[in-house]
Amino acid sequence: MPSQQPPNVPKAAAEGADTAPAPSLWRNHDYMYWWAGTAFSLLGSYVSVMAFPLLVLFTTGSVFDAGVIATAGRIGILGTTLWGGALADRVTRKLILVAVPLVQATLMGVVAASVYAGHVLIPLLTTASP
Prior knowledge:
The protein is mostly helical. 74% of the residues lie in helices and 0% in strands. It has helices spanning 11-14, 29-60, 63-90, 93-117, 122-128.
């Protein structure tokens, strides 16, 4: 009597045929670009979390303004965490993955230019806080 296989299992799988292993993510160029971009973005965010309040403290001497910058960064993280998921459900993910880092880089470029010019603006740093 022939052996019966379960109804929804292909014949090759029922006989124990080996399947090809999944390709490594290290060979996927899109994944590597995303991974590298995310790593640099996180590094920049964590450096700016510490650098922005110190920048304000050293340039203005105001501990209050440094606290405002640090608080604005935390509120920004809370706001983007709460609303980011809903936005990701409604907008193309590729657009988010491209547009958000470009906006971050533009803001950091404006901050760097203002610091280089010697004009540290509290509203600009509050807006650009990570």
